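seq:
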Amino acid sequence: MGPVRALRLGLLLLGVLSGALCGPHSLRYFYTAVSEPSPGVPWFLIEGYVDGNLILRYDSETGRMVPRADWMVANLDQQYWDTQTQIAQRNQQVDHVNLEILRGRYNQSGGLHVRQRMSGCDLLEDGSTRGYYQSAYDGRDFIALDMDTMTFTAVDAAAQITKRKWEEDGTVAEEKKNYLKNTCIESLRKYMSYGRAVLERKERPTVRVSGKEGDGFLTLHCRAYGFYPRPISVSWLKDGEVRDQETERGGPVPNSDGTYYTWASIKANPGEKDKYRCRVEHASLPEAEVYAWGEPGGLGHGEGRAGVVPLPLLMVEKKGKEEVEGDRPVFLWDMAGHPCLCGGGGEL
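struct:
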C-alpha cells in the first residue's frame, strides 16, 4: 500500500470509524491533497460518510462530485451534484495553492506530502450533539478546534501560526461551531432519512476464536466478521473478569460489502487456556455472547461461524517529525449540504 492511500485510510479509520457500543450517528467529510499524484492516486480527493457508509466522492481525475450510495441518487437531483462539483473544483484550486505554500514554509523542495482534514458531527442517542474539526500533514496531527473553549489546539510552532491567524480573525471558531452544531446536524438528519433502511439494519457478527503457542505463551485471538452497525465490544475474560489492560485490539475496519471486522488478542499461560473466554456485544445480539477456543458453538447463545476472510488492518505511514502542516482554509457545508469556503481565510 502506498503512503497516500495508507495515510488517507489511516485518518479515516481513526476518525470516521469511532464510537461506543451504542454509538452515535455520524457525518464525516474527509479532504486529502497530495503534492505528487501518481497513476490511480488523484492529487485532490473529497469523501463524505454517514455512519461509515460512503455517500459521495470527488477527485481531481474525474473532476466531478458523484453519489456513492443508491439512496443519495434517489433523493438528490442532478442540479445538486452540479453545484457540488463547482464548489469542489473551487476547493481543489485553493488546495493547489496552499500545498505550494506549505512546502515553502517548511523548506520542502520536493517529494510526496499529504494534507488531510476531517470535519463532522455526531447525533447521540440522548439527542445531544458533538462536532469536531481536525487536520494533519504527512500523517501527523496539526491543528484541531476545541469546541468547549472556542480556541484551536496547535501541536507545534508551525501550527501556532495558523492558531494565531484564526483566533485573531475572531470569527473562524464561531463559524466552525455554528456549522458543526447546526448545519452539519441538519444535513446528518436529512441523509439519515434518505438512507434509513440501510443505516438502521443490523447484521450479526461471525465470531471465530483461535490460538497459537510460542515463546512459552499461548496467544488467543478472537475475530468478529461481517457485522453492522460498526460499534461493537469484543473483550477477553479470565475466570469471568474482563482483562482489558492485557488485551490488544484492531479495528473495527470496513469490509467491501459495507460490514465491519475487528479482533482482540491476549497472551495466556498454556496451562490456563480453559480459563479464558471471548465476550462479544453488538446491537444485533439480544445479549452478550461468549466463546471459547475449541468450542465452535461458543457458550450461551454464541454461534462460532467459519469461512469469513478478514480484511487486513490498515496502518498509517508517517514521514519525519519535522514535516508538519501549514494553515489553510476549511471547507465546510452550507445549509443545503454543499461544501463552502468558511472561516479559513482564503488562500495563504
